[in-house]
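ARCHIVE CARD
CATEGORY: sequence design from structure
SOURCE FIELD: tokenized fold
FIELD CONTENT:
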């Protein structure tokens, strides 16, 4: 099944009203259905309209906060990451987060809450975020803030990557099954054109 989304919802998000209203966008769906593609598309449009944007995976953002904390620069780093009108937090759910990491990310999201928009992507439903962040209470508080002013885009369907693999393997299979004369003709043609 081809990944499905509502065209009107995606088009309306690209008008960037959510950035002006400081609302969040959350793309949920299994691997390969286009979450990162859509999140980056919104970030590009926002940047073209002169908005300051920042992109990172959850793990990258947390690492940068942890490094800043070790260097005694946490306040500054939090300020830098609170500043952009659009922050993309990609890949929530693929890698586990340490408790310190979860606390730092929670601090960042609390600062951005109602101040600036965040676009988040995850392959896991909200019911699993407690497990991802290793803390049910903090995950619930995070989800509560994120969902207060939010646009939720649930993408269903099969991975675009799988479609490419399937198309490739089908092409290879039909090539292998083609009558030998066709194959000979093809290979001689390819030799001639070199
Ligand atoms: N609407 C689309 N039409 C065709 N290809 C697409 C579309 N959206 C995304 N793709 C392609 O499908 C592949 C997977 O997309 P993407 O990386 O955005 O998925 P994802 O949902 O972020 O996956 P993951 O959960 O693994 O990070 C990419 O190669 C991307 O370019
Ligand atoms: Mg992705």
């Amino acid at each position: 099944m081809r990944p499905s989304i509502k065209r009107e919802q995606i088009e309306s998000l690209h008008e960037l009203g959510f950035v002006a209203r400081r609302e969040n966008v959350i793309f949920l769906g299994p691997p390969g259905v286009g979450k990162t593609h859509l999140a980056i598309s919104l970030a590009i449009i926002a940047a073209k309209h002169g908005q300051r944007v920042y992109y990172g995976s959850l793990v990258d953002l947390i690492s940068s906060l942890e490094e800043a904390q070790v260097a005694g620069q946490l306040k500054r780093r939090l300020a830098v990451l609170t500043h952009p009108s659009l922050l993309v937090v990609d890949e929530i759910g693929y890698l586990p987060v340490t408790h310190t990491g979860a606390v730092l990310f929670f601090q960042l999201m609390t600062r951005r809450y109602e101040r600036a928009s965040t676009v988040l992507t995850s392959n896991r439903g909200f019911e699993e975020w407690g497990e991802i962040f290793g803390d049910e209470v903090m995950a619930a508080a995070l989800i509560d803030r994120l969902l207060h002013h939010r646009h939720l885009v649930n993408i269903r369907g099969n991975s675009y990557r799988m479609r490419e693999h399937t198309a490739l393997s089908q092409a290879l299979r039909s090539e292998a099954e083609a009558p030998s004369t066709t194959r000979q003709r093809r290979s001689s043609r390819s030799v001639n054109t070199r």
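CARD ANNOTATION: Residues 185-194 have pLDDT under 50 and may be disordered. Residues 7-157 form a domain with the Rossmann fold fold (CATH 3.40.50.300).
SHELF: design records, drawer C
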